[in-house]
Amino acid sequence: RDLTALSRREAQAYLPGSGLGELLERCEEPSFARDPAAEAEHTMGLAREVMARW
Fold first, then answer.
1. b/e for 4-36, b at 16 or more Cβ within 10 A?
2. What pTM was computed for the model?
C-alpha cells in the first residue's frame, strides 16, 4: 500500500507500534530546540530505528 497520502494519525493506525506516527509527529512542527542541529540528528536516529523495524 502507498503510504505517502496518509496523515500521521492514519499511518499510526495502519502501522501501530511501528513508531511511524511518533516520528511523523516530530516532523510536523518546526523545532524550537536550543540546538536545532542536535534535534535534527536525534530525529534522524529515530527515523533509522523506525526504518530498521520494517
1. eebebeebbeebeeebbbebbeeeeeeeeeeee
2. 0.65
